[in-house]
Amino acid sequence: MNLDVLARYGPSLVHGLGTTLTLVAVSIACGGLLAIPVALARLSENRVVGSLAFAYVYFFRGTPLLAQIFLVYYGMGEFRPTLQSLGLWSFFRDAVNCAAFTFTLNTAAYQAEIYRGAIRSVPRGQAEAAEALGLRRWTIFRYVIAPQAAIIALRPLGNEIILMIKGSAVASIVTVLDLMGETRLAFSRSFDMTVYLYAAVLYLAVVEVLRRIWNMLEVRLTRHLALRA
Amino acid sequence: MADLIALLAPGPTGWGDEILAGTWLTIRLALATLPFGLAVGLLIALAKRSQVAWQRLLGEAFTTVFRGLPELLTLFIVYYGGQMLLQTVVRLFSERYIEVNGFVAGIVALGLVFAAYASEVFASAFKGIPNGQWEGAAALGLHRGQTLRLVILPQLVRLALPGLANLWLILLKDTSLVSVIALNDLLRMTSVAVGNTKEPFFFYFVACMIYLIMSIVSSFGITAIERWAERGEQRRAMGPRRIAIGAAPS
Q1: What is the ipTM for the molecules in this complex?
Q2: CATH class of B2-244
Q3: In this protein, which residues make up the domain named ABC transmembrane type-1 (chain A) (predicted)?
């Protein structure tokens, strides 16, 4: 164990961890908002809308996250005049924003598939019964379909967040100083392998904490389904 | 648009041949990782079922670590850690400087991650095989190795195939990470092209399309393999009746 390295680079690693968590939290939240219309579009009976959503999902799930982030980070530079006239350039100039933008689009595709599967898993009879009661479409979705779908979606959503935490490490390649970025910086200065091991411990700890929170959440959300002794 | 297409032409003026060479390396890397990852994954799955406590613990620890770490971090640890380990060993014998092969580091890192996920796929496939199969094999006097090879594995493959197919598609995308350790894969050759032509959007989009084509082709291959693995199932469904009617043992 090399404690000097930990004392020297520990604070920046923790700071990087904060960046990673913020990046992931923002991406998952924005991606979740974007995912709902995409999921509904995938379920839509309109052919054009359905295939557009399918193409979006297929593209973001079928290509590497690293390639996507390069496409946004380097590719947006080409559209600088257009972006400047739209007042968006200051957003895309910053690597962190590009990373958050890419992750949002990426996780929206994955989350859309999760929500689509969850919505479809709710038996048709539920919607039909609600319709027979004279509820409006939105009310049916909000109070009948969504609560049941949420239980199905919970576990895959937890997996998706873990995948995003791991995947967010590629942001370090486009100069973002997340946990991985700080670690690479510390390694390039100290040439001490142990910084990578400290980063590994931090990543594992985050994933483990999230897994436990998710287990508790699942117990809580499904408590009405549990068998009473 | 036409001048952009011209940039994809093979030869000294375009980047088509460089990108194809990168694609070829990506395919080779993924294909080389597959057997290594499958073998380690199966071993880990067996360790998790073991009756020896430390083997079970080792199996669980392996899965937890390599499923929890970012693939990029695993790659760096294998690449730089392997470099230092190799250097220390070599220094015992000579003063030569030996560099870790990026391709091998890529296989090891991606293979470890693949194995961690594959071991879970195998573990649940094991659960899908009825106990009677083990007992029947034991009754026939097969020993453990034979039981596994002749009775269990052929059935395991069929049960594990959908999960493994998914992992293959993930592996194909994860290969892009080796571009960071200066291996000339598809993504890195694309970056080289971008550096020379200053057309990032076009070239990275082309790279994404090539990744998509690779996964579409894989999907066709997977469907064919699944059909091949299921062929016994269909025959067995029709089988018993035919035996009952005719086919006396000759």
Answers
A1: 0.90
A2: mainly alpha
A3: 17-214
